[in-house]
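Q: Can I see a sequence and its folded structure?
A: Here is a first one.
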Amino acid sequence: MRINVSKDILLKALQQVLKAVPANQQIPILAGVHIQALTNELVVTTCNSSMTIQYRIPGEDTSLTVQRIGEVVVPARYFCEIIRKSDAGMITLEVDRSLRLTISSEHTQIRLCGMDAVDYPAIHPAENHAVLKLAVNNQLLKASILQVAGAASLSEHRPVLTGVSFQYRNHRLQLTATNGIRLASRTIDVEHDAEIERHIIVPGRNLVEAVKIMDGEDRTTEVEVTNRHVRFTANHIMVQSALIEGEYPSLHHVIPHTFISEITIGTAPLLKAVERTTVLASESIIRLETTADRLRLLSQTAEIGDIEDEVSILEKNGEDFTISLNGKYVADILHGTSSEFVRLRFTGKMSPMVIHPKNDLSSTFFLITPVRTAK
């Protein structure tokens, strides 16, 4: 293998794929980056036990010239650091018969011991056995994942709850996550020719990496689902994730459909008040109380102090209410919504509170289970 490639473009590719290499990886081949030179393309790949990230550098201009095809696996973090500290301009990568990679720039030659790419986990083409293929707007998919994935559990006690449920039915894709205390769900419209239903569970931590390939421009991300994986492809980058096996719990019975009262309030002022109140909130617990046209927020920590804040209510239906919630969870929800206003729906002091962005009442909602307190 012998290629000439722009340092900046190669470094960009390496910085993207390095996220799939754990710092404490004990298997040498999985601590490496797979470099493959094709006729007019350079493919850079890393993987771990549940995720693969692949970046394709096309030979469309002078930033890449493939002189001899081939492939090799080299230690990922060493290779990335070498490229990062190389001089600007073009870099030559050459692999000899002993799998030694020589990295040459204007004044420097560095040699790395490589590994045989035959031993690297293969990526099988998804198009040969995909059971569902969707094209989703980047902005829409990214916003949906960011709104929902934060509600997934961080505990491995129930593995299915560490993932995000993707339910495709009737040209609609519903994303749902819960840790048993809070729940987030968003449904988006997706164009697809076939009448098909599919349900998968994707690890939340892998989705956090997948959204990073979805830029803010009006482009699409290709989503391909197989029996064992889901693949997101956009902008020369592919993120493939293993699926979580198991049955996601039915949540229909925990979602309230009738409400005692509801209020509409400004997102920004409520977020600021929640963040202030949480500063002195013991175990992040804050109390919300409505009085006339005001929402009061209260918190305290024994022998430290207490906080009381107020926010104006814009619309109100029903009776006054009091409820105690985890302030951090409330702040996370408000951070994730782009709506100027949110609607809080109260179903009882010890029943879940439902929060909707006012500009998306029908397809996006968040649910928080209240905390039992002395008051």
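Q: Show me another, different protein.
A: A second, unrelated one:
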Amino acid sequence: AELKDITAELADAGCRVSLFIDPSVAAVEAAARIGAPVVELHTGTYCEADGETRETELARIIEAARACGETGIECHAGHGLDYATVKPIAAIAEIMELNIGHFLIGEAIFRGFSGAVGEMRRLMDEARAGA
């Protein structure tokens, strides 16, 4: 009840509340119960995994994103995304925003901001075109 009260108080004050959660249906349902209008699904485990484990993590993210759509929660995702991992996440139609900060700043050292962001945007657009 405490988090629900804090979420309501922040919303009443005009703050847009978003919760950073594990990519699970249970976490999305909990966010819905407390009235969070937005969640960010944690993609770090997916990004750090490989092979079959990565596919399992991607399936969890897809399932959680669909749960967001079913509950009316705006879905964002992020943590650890880079050029190699962004396309499968960007292809998930329910995800409205990706948070990709650290990688882009690091990549900008080599490519400049325009080059780093431009390449990320190209990959995201490619993924959305197939979504």
